[in-house]
Each structure stands twice: as structure tokens, then as C-alpha cells.
């Protein structure tokens, strides 16, 4: 079981503590949504899972192994960002292939993998196009495909849909949930939008000011809020 475990994790920038003694288990294979207001520490939490940010104190375990000293590239995790972070001079194929070339995956294998994944995310007609000629939704799919070719045990996604218009965002929510069901891989998904959280997650981690307010299923968070913050944020009727 490749659970992700936070044991007493604190992260401070100078005198400011942005994640405060966090204890959390993200279950292997779950679609876990970390949700909360802007600035509450969601991205910092994700970046610590990925190893892009080092905790000030505490331990992180993935699959029972302490990863405190494990470099980001060795954590078997792929990250998808809000701003896509695509290479503008490369084609869609080039963007997706880049990490595989670096890993010295043989060409025939790369092509087969890219074909499979582009079929899944609907990018096959766009493989020879440059990012600037694509729509927001298509660019987001390229970012997703680039993460998928790595076949990671964990996907982490930081507000991946927030640059999309409402209609496309709704469609992509459904697609991401279907993708999770199909892959069976752990998804750790960050959003500030409680509707998005409740409609996508099978586990909800609600944060405020660097502290977990409640970590539960959407049903429990909605029907059994632990405190006033949770009830108000989720919109539980009083
Ligand atoms: P969220 O993703 O929930 O909006 P973040 O994790 O990005 O929140 O940020 C939490 C807090 O930490 C914010 O107050 C932010 O300004 C601060 N912060 C994040 N990264 C840094 C950094 N590299 N240096 C200093 N402060 C930071
Ligand atoms: Mg953020």
C-alpha cells in the first residue's frame, strides 16, 4: 500500500508557520482533495509531498518508506500545475516526450506510450501542433498527458482547472474522475472551490490557516462537520 503519511509536519518560512503540525494519511488509490481558502497552505502541502519544498520538521512516508531525504525525481510522483508549464517552442508530442527522452526510453516504446495516452485524453489530432495554437482545455490535457507518460504511483494536481471557463471546467472534472477510476492511481488534488472538492473527491482534507479542520469523506464533511469553519465553508445547512 503506497499510502502517503504526514507525521507532525510543520513548514515555516522565516517566522511564519504555513503548515502547523499536520498529521495526515492519504490512502493509496484514493482521489483526495485538499481544499481551503487562498493562502491556507494547500500548495505548500502538495510541494512537500512532491519534494519541491522541504518540511521544517516532521516526517513524510510514501509506501512505508521515509522520503525526507528522497529527491523529487525519485518519489514516483508526477505533478500537474495550474499554468500548464508547457514548452512553447516544442510541439505537443515534444512536450509529452521530453521526460521520456531524458529517461532514455527507446523511441518505439515512447511512440507507443504517447499514442496510448493521447488516445485516452483526446490529443491525437494535435500531436504536431504548438501549445499557443491550442485551447486552454487542450493545453491542460497536454500537461496531464506529460504527467501520465511517467506512469507515476501518485498524481498531484494544483488547481489544474482554474484557468478554464466554467463549462470546460465542469467537463474536465468529470474526465479527471473517470481517468482516476481507469488508472487506479492515487490523485492528490488541490482546489479552493468547495463545489469542485465535493464533486470530485472520495476523501476531503479541509484546511484553514495551515491546520486541517477535517479530513473525511464528502458525506461526513457535509453531514457531520466538526466545527463552524467546516460547516460554513462546505455550506452545511444550520
Ligand atoms: P494556498 O495554496 O492554500 O493558496 P500556499 O501554500 O501557496 O497557500 O501558501 C501558504 C502561505 O505561505 C501563504 O501565506 C504564502 O504567502 C506563504 N508562502 C508560500 N510559499 C512561500 C515562500 N516560498 N516564501 C514565503 N512565503 C511563502
Ligand atoms: Mg495554491
TrEMBL record:
GO biological process: carbohydrate transport
GO molecular function, one term: ATP hydrolysis activity
Keywords attached to this entry: ATP-binding, Cell membrane, Membrane, Nucleotide-binding, Translocase, Transport
Segments traversing the membrane: none
Domain ABC transporter: 4-234
Gene Ontology annotations for the cellular component aspect, listed alphabetically: ATP-binding cassette (ABC) transporter complex, substrate-binding subunit-containing
Domain of life: Bacteria
Protein name: Carbohydrate ABC transporter ATP-binding protein (CUT1 family)
Organism for this UniProt entry: Aureibacillus halotolerans
Origin organism lineage: Bacteria, Bacillati, Bacillota, Bacilli, Bacillales
Span within the parent record: 1 to 238 of 363
Amino acid at each position: 500500500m503506497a499510502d502517503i503519511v504526514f507525521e507532525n509536519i510543520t513548514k515555516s518560512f522565516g517566522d511564519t508557520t504555513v503548515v502547523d503540525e499536520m498529521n495526515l494519511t492519504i490512502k493509496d488509490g484514493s482521489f483526495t482533495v485538499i481544499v481551503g481558502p487562498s493562502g491556507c497552505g494547500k500548495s505548500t502541502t502538495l510541494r512537500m509531498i512532491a519534494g519541491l519544498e522541504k518540511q521544517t520538521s516532521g516526517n513524510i512516508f510514501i509506501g512505508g518508506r521515509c522520503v525526507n531525504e528522497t529527491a523529487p525525481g525519485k518519489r514516483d510522483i508526477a505533478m500537474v500545475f495550474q499554468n500548464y508549464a508547457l514548452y512553447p517552442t516544442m510541439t505537443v508530442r515534444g512536450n509529452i516526450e521530453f521526460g521520456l527522452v531524458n529517461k532514455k526510453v527507446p523511441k518505439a516504446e515512447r511512440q507507443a506510450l504517447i499514442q496510448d495516452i493521447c488516445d485516452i485524453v483526446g490529443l491525437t489530432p494535435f500531436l504536431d501542433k504548438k501549445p499557443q495554437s491550442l485551447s486552454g482545455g487542450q493545453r491542460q490535457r497536454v500537461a496531464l498527458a506529460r504527467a501520465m507518460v511517467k506512469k507515476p504511483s501518485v498524481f498531484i494536481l494544483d488547481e489544474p482547472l482554474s484557468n478554464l471557463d466554467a463549462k470546460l471546467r465542469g467537463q474536465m472534472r468529470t474526465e479527471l474522475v473517470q481517468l482516476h477510476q481507469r488508472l487506479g492511481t492515487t490523485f492528490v488534488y488541490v482546489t479552493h472551490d468547495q463545489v469542485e472538492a465535493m464533486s470530485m473527491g472520495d476523501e476531503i482534507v479541509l484546511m484553514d490557516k495551515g491546520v486541517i479542520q477535517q479530513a473525511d469523506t464528502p458525506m461526513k464533511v457535509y453531514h457531520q462537520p466538526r466545527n463552524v469553519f467546516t460547516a460554513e465553508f462546505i455550506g452545511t445547512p444550520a
